[in-house]
Q: What sequence folds into this?
């Protein structure tokens, strides 16, 4: 589950990770009031307005409705705040990560400006914590090259990316934190602050069950403070059962509405761009079915795993969800019945089909496993325009025929 | 014989008295698996499915001599159950539970590393040695005894592969469901190695999916150790990058963990890679007859 920048920063504070201070607002008036307070608190007229969406590249992104307005802007007076807030709130931000449709912005973060002058040089670093699947350990990745696209840095100058693996069950050790601070070229107060920052950041990553925690830029101010200017936090969905407060932070408006609806029916659905819908039990078989659709000349319209209990209710919900997509020209239901009996699934398909009525596209039902023959008989005798298969190769042929008929 | 579990395995069920544990333990007993008891904390001393219930895995092992455990404990407590089994000296720990937090598994895997045990899963269908022992949730009748081993990240795709092998005139020695999570106990390479060393297995079906580097690792090992043919399939050729496809581990993170990249590596290392999941069984039959050469 992804969190917004303002939510992630609130959570980091619980672990004493210093962040750029800010206030999240959802109206122009709130934005102006927040600016006035931040301006007084920090003794400066400068502040930063940041659109809150689940995507990066906001500074270079533009609003569809106001093309010269970017998603992150430095302001120096209340009029500037008012203009930016009016331009951004309720409008759609397109960045390199959102796709051309963009994302609607309903919240702004009014944040303190940290780029003031002082006795030392300002610096932007990069830091992220994630799980290294190959080593089966958490790893801290960091670089002196902050504030830019880290994948580009990794590609062009891989020697500028450092990695520090952490032994499972242990906190980040002192020598590791010092190594990181030294590699970032720090000394004196900034060095001490970085050692504390990275130790606390690692505790936050583990304590909040993050699957990814990225600070970019990780900032050294001109007075040697170390803090998170931006933060991207992705929380392990499996851990939400023990983090009710985090689960409450979920912003469903950031997700595909059909995927949210599928989730409410305990269906695992991912929308794709193709023309053949599919409904399958099991994630691996679901992916394999998508691949087979492609090999048969179609393009999969979705991933849909109905899980271990394919009954009339789940099949009906699956049908409804798939048919919301106007691109779908045929639907393949592929169920390998084990504990689930195929004849029951077939009865469920027939019941759902009759209930929905008016299905004008070919439906191919492949049922294999427990009671497969009985299931095929049920489908054939139902008189419905449903094509039945038992072998996967037969189903592939039927999909090919359906695609070619279009 | 075969690998991991057989008719002599003494199996306990952790989460024995719960709904899932009860249902699948019943099925396992019907299959002929030697289920010697189970564990449910605070229900020790009672009897369930005519078998003793223990408070701790240690009690169960001390009393029954169990060497295999299957775990149906809910996700919040499953990593703890894995560590408990390892600590009690269980040799083969099979964790069915789906949805365990990743950080729990990072810790549990580190904990069991120093114990003399093998973890299969989590988030897997379990292990079946056809005709001898079913320690999992798979429908047993599909796995007709024979000499083909299966290693797979996925449940129903394992059943599909077994069914195709049987329809192609072959049968199954041991099928190992290694699980679809990012952190699992036994890797593809380790499971393939077990079957490569098994005198009762003549060919191996290796089924992977997008995400991670386990299939490539197995392929490189096979290149040097291919003493019997391997047929491979990777699910997710049409999966978009960056989206999680059902399994927690099934997500394309870079250029190396796409289906295309894995299939290329596997083919280069001498595995018979099939593009369509419908051709797994027929391909294995042809390879064994010498009609196909990698």
A:
């Amino acid at each position: 589950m992804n969190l917004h920048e303002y939510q992630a920063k609130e959570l980091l504070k619980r672990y004493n990770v210093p962040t750029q201070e800010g206030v999240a607002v959802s109206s122009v008036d709130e934005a102006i009031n927040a600016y006035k307070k931040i301006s007084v608190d920090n003794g400066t007229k400068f502040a930063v307005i940041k659109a809150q969406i689940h995507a990066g590249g906001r500074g270079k992104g533009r609003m569809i409705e106001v093309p010269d307005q970017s998603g992150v802007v430095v302001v120096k007076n209340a009029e500037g705040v008012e203009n930016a807030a009016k331009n951004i709130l309720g409008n759609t931000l397109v960045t390199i990560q959102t796709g051309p449709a963009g994302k609607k912005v309903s919240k702004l973060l009014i944040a303190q400006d940290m780029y003031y002058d002082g006795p030392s040089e300002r610096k932007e670093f990069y830091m992220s914590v994630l799980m290294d699947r190959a080593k089966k350990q958490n790893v801290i990745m960091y670089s002196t090259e902050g504030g830019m696209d880290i994948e580009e840095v990794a590609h062009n100058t891989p020697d500028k990316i450092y990695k520090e693996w952490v032994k499972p069950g242990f906190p980040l050790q002192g020598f590791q934190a010092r190594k990181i601070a030294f590699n970032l070229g720090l000394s004196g107060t900034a060095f001490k602050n970085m050692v504390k920052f990275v130790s606390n950041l690692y505790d936050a990553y583990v304590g909040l069950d993050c699957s990814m925690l990225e600070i970019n830029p990780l900032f050294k101010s001109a007075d040697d403070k170390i803090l998170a200017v931006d933060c991207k936090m992705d929380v392990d969905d499996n851990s939400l059962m023990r983090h009710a407060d985090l689960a409450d932070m979920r912003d469903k408006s950031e997700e595909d509405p059909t995927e949210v609806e599928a989730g409410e029916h305990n269906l695992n659905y991912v929308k794709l761009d193709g023309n053949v819908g599919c409904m399958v039990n099991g994630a691996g078989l679901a992916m394999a079915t998508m691949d087979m659709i492609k090999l048969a000349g179609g393009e999969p319209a979705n991933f849909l795993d109905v899980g271990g209990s394919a009954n009339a209710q789940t099949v009906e919900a699956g049908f409804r969800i798939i048919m919301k997509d106007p691109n779908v020209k045929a639907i393949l239901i592929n169920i390998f019945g084990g504990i689930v009996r195929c004849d029951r699934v077939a009865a469920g398909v027939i019941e759902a089909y009759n209930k929905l009525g008016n299905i004008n596209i070919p439906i191919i039902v492949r049922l294999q496993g427990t009671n497969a023959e009985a299931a095929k008989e049920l489908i054939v005798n139902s008189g419905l325009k449903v094509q039945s298969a038992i072998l996967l190769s037969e189903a592939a042929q039927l999909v090919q025929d359906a695609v070619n008929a279009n | 014989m075969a690998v991991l579990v057989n008719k002599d395995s003494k199996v306990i069920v952790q989460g024995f008295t719960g709904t899932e544990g009860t249902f699948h333990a019943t099925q396992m007993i019907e299959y002929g698996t030697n289920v010697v008891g189970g564990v449910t904390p605070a229900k020790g001393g009672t009897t369930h499915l005519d078998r003793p219930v223990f408070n701790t895995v240690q009690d169960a092992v001390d009393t029954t001599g169990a060497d295999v455990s299957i775990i149906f404990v809910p996700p919040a407590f499953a990593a703890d159950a894995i560590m408990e089994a390892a600590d009690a000296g269980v040799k083969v720990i099979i964790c069915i539970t789906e949805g365990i937090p990743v950080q729990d598994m990072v810790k549990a895997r580190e904990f069991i590393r120093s114990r003399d045990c093998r973890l299969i899963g989590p988030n897997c269908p379990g292990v079946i040695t056809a005709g001898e022992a079913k320690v999992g949730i798979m429908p047993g009748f599909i796995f007709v005894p024979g000499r083909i081993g299966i290693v797979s990240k996925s449940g129903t795709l394992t059943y599909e592969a077994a069914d195709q092998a049987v329809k192609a005139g072959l049968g199954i020695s041991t099928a190992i469901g290694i699980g679809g999570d990012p952190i699992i106990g036994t890797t593809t390479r380790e499971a393939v190695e077990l079957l490569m060393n098994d005198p009762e297995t003549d060919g191996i079906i290796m089924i992977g999916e997008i995400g991670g580097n386990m299939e490539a690792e197995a392929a490189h090992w096979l290149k040097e150790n291919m003493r019997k043919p391997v047929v491979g399939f990777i699910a997710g050729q049409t999966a978009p990058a960056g989206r999680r496809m059902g399994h927690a581990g099934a997500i394309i993170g870079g250029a190396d963990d796409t289906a295309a990249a894995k299939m290329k590596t596997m083919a280069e290392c001498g595995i018979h890679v099939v593009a369509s999941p419908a051709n797994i069984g027929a391909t294995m039959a042809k390879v064994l007859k010498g009609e196909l050469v990698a």
